């Protein structure tokens, strides 16, 4: 059982907010928090449990940086109140692999250089795990469409795609006969010719 | 976000009772829109009633051949349900055209009907908005109106309903089941959402405290000839500038029955039964489709920066009807996405 911090890690609030006890199952561990009802699952993870792998990007469900898995399904933890997850099984990036044994997606992201600043990466990996769990994407176009809830402002999309495709191919989920490696994706649009002087 | 209390309801009656007991209470489904509105201080409920434990997430066949979607079924579970994929593929397409996989995993079917406009001025507390603050004025009129209405707007509000799912539900003649302080009732889908008129603060015809419990799809799903065509500023994860739900029943080349509804153009999913009547009995040709499109947009009025949506909507209707017609003639449904009007 990990140590549970019962107060926010940041500056103390002006007046203590009314709290209620909430039991959460995160990465296989049970935690009981005393939190205000307006605490999002994202804030509960980051501010009360020190699980800072899950990132706060836009905080409005638009960027996907806060993606976690709830009962195996990917959701935006920024738009979900922690008090609504009493009976859920929550999995964060910290629960996907260990430092000694990375999950296949984590290893593939390293192998394919699928990030630059890395801020969107935990959300990308949790989202890709959700995508694999859902089993709806069968080719590159479908992977791209079903990863559209995760924004990467560095623009590492080609390598994110190849990392996800490699894992899916290794697990027999992709039907296309195509070798996937970093940078192997064909550009869909011809390169723009420089203007003639 | 303002402070509020939270309770997890254990049944529909208890939820309705809890709502009546609190001034300013709101029901919480998936929260994908409500929590966001609360963070923006646009919505300021004093008490949230969690609906997760109500059940109501089943999708079940009805004795009359229809399908009931529980109000708490998620958009993702609905889109991918085998009965929806097989019998109501128009609904499957419309749901998957909206939001992101994460949001569809959270958002509920009842909540999809209850989502509010994405009008920029509605979200911006620094600008007047009759929907947010009745009587304060409309900042969209004369402003930037790319996502705003071209049909059915009023001098008080030109907001659009943002849903894709609801456009398909309108085309499919869905019935909405609600439960409230005065008991249960059903609402025809076309009567659920309303036009802004002089009360733009009211998105729909629900009475205070009423809760959506289920959506009934009739047996007829138009699974053979349909199209949900969505036009937007990027190819994924964006709201519609214009979307069209088109569904046809064909006898050879003659249209026996037709459904036509638009999204992104009005305060409610815009179904046009007169345009449908122009299609029925006619051959499925471009001329027929153009006549229907002209009828739908006959009363359209642009707001300046959205004038382009009138012609865009006409062409989208013609293309969607063509895609629906040609469906059973091609091997790959994806091929239609690239066909020309």
TrEMBL record, chain A:
GO MF, any single term: oxidoreductase activity, acting on the aldehyde or oxo group of donors
Gene3D superfamilies, alphabetized: 3.10.20.30, [2Fe-2S]-binding domain
Domain of life: Bacteria
InterPro entries: 2Fe-2S-bd, 2Fe-2S-bd_dom_sf, 2Fe-2S_ferredoxin-like_sf, 2Fe-2S_ferredoxin-type, 2Fe2S_fd_BS, Aldehyde_Oxdr_Iron-Sulfur, Beta-grasp_dom_sf
PROSITE patterns: 2FE2S_FER_1, 2FE2S_FER_2
UniProt keywords, alphabetically: 2Fe-2S, Iron, Iron-sulfur, Metal-binding, Oxidoreductase
2Fe-2S ferredoxin-type domain span: 20-96
Iron found in the keyword field: yes
Protein name (database record): (2Fe-2S)-binding protein
Species in which this protein is naturally found: Hymenobacter properus
Native organism taxonomy: Bacteria, Pseudomonadati, Bacteroidota, Cytophagia, Cytophagales
TrEMBL record, chain B:
SMART domains named in the record: CO_deh_flav_C
Keyword check for Flavoprotein: yes
Domain of life: Bacteria
SUPFAM superfamilies: CO dehydrogenase flavoprotein C-terminal domain-like, FAD-binding/transporter-associated domain-like
GO molecular function list: FAD binding; oxidoreductase activity
Record's keyword annotation contains Flavoprotein: yes
Keyword terms: FAD, Flavoprotein
Residue ranges of every copy of the FAD-binding PCMH-type domain listed in the record: 1-222
Pfam families: CO_deh_flav_C, FAD_binding_5
Record protein name field: Xanthine dehydrogenase family protein subunit M
